[in-house]
Amino acid sequence: QVQLVESGGGLVQPGGSLRLSCAASGRTFSTLALGWLRQAPGKTPEFVAGASWSGDRTYSVDYGRFSISRDNAKNTVYLQMNRLKPEDTAVYYCAAKTSGSFNYVYRDPDEYTWWGQGTQVTVSS
Questions:
Q1: Half-sphere exposure of 9 (CA within 13 A, CB side)
Q2: Which DSSP state fits 26?
Q3: Tens digit of pLDDT for each residue in 110-120?
Q4: Which residue from 20, 102, 106, 120 lies 20 to 30 Å from 85 (Cα-Cα)?
C-alpha cells in the first residue's frame, strides 16, 4: 500500500507558476513509477507528466510548461507548472505504481495503482 499526499495547489493568475509536491509513504519510494494526473470538472482524468522509478526518464504533455522531478531522499515528487492557463484549472493528483521496468513512464491514468486525494489548481484573473 502506498499513501500519497499532495500539496501546493491554489489560485494563480494566468501566466503564473505553481509547484505541486507529493509526499509518499508505505513502500520503497525508489521502486515506484510516478505520475501527475489532472481532472477538470465534467472530464475524465488525463495524464500531465510522469517519471520512471529510476528517475532517468520523464515525460510531459507540455515540456515547456510542466516539469516533473523526484527526490528519492525525501520520498517526494514535484510538478513545476509555468505559464499557467485557465484551461489548466483542475484537481491535480499524484499517482504511483510499482514497475518492472526501471526506465518506463506510464502515461495512461488507468495504469496507476495508487492515487492521492488531489489538490485544486485554479487559474483565473
A1: 20
A2: S
A3: 999 999 999 99
A4: 106
Under DSSP, is residue 2 helix (H, G, I), strand (E, B) or coil? coil
Enter the C-alpha cell of residue 86.
485557465
User: pLDDT digit string (tens) for 16-35?
Assistant: 999 999 999 987 888 899 99
Distance, in Å, from the CA atom of 78 to the CA atom of 88, rounded to the nearest integer, reads: 17
Strand runs labelled E in 1-125: 3-7, 10-12, 18-25, 32-39, 46-51, 58-60, 66-71, 76-81, 90-98, 114-115, 119-123
For every residue of 47-63, DSSP letters joined together read EEEEE-TTSS-EEES-T
- Whether residue 28 contacts residue 119, with contact meaning beta carbons closer than 8 Å, is answered with no
* Burial class of residue 16 (count of CB atoms within 10 Å of its CB; 0-12, 13-18, 19+): middle
**CA-to-CA distance for 4 and 19, rounded, in angstroms?**
16
